[in-house]
Amino acid sequence: MPTSPHADHSPDLFDRLARDGAAEWARYVDHPFVRGMGDGSLPEAAFRHYLVQDYLFLTHFARAYALAIYKGRNLAEMRAALTGLKAILDVEMDLHVGLCAGWGVAPEELERAPEAKATMAYTRYVLETGLRGDLLDLHVALAPCVIGYAEIGKTLAARADAQAASNPYRVWIAEYSSDAYQAVATAARQNLDRLAADSLTASRYPRLLTIFQQASRLEADFWDMGLTLAD
Length: 231
Ligand SMILES: Cc1ncc(CO)c(N)n1
What we know:
With about 230 residues, the chain is an all-alpha fold. The chain has helices spanning about 15-20, 20-30, 30-40, 45-70, 75-100, 105-110, 115-130, 135-155, 160-165, 170-175, 180-200, 205-230. The N and C termini lie far apart (about 40 Å).
């Protein structure tokens, strides 16, 4: 893994945000939905509801990366956003549709599903933050998604019951703990640090922390929506 050019300025921006927003971060990554996947006790109906909404989430997530291309100030930034967009449209979406098929959820059902309010709230918050702000605002809003799922995947994969053949959620856990997904999260951290080196100032940090805390709250609400089958 190439080291960040700012490795000497530890902690990196992501670690700083997760530390200063520790309460919101913990409620998201250590949510009962997550623990239920880890030990296999999560009700199947909750997971299926989540899976369908996550498909809708990913379509808007792709739009956010398309916005990052638009917001790019040079070719390197535009290409970095394009790499993120392709990772969602060409890789994560296929994995997701495959995962849904394994649970008996057909692509037509995914396309037809009405969007839950928690899905609207989270995805539109990210898009609105990016529209109003610059690339750093947008990537801070996106950070809990990518980096959070990588952390959740890695934490769960370290549990013995997560890998057990009897755990119905082991495929999801394997996907997000995979080297490929961990590398996407590492790249997202490095991208944040590159943007921070360019445009982070002391007076700007509190606003970025607020974005990070809001996005983390909306991720936790997304898990709640799965558990409660909320529409
Ligand atoms: C809600 C949500 N957050 C993050 C990810 C990771 O891409 C996802 N698939 N869904």
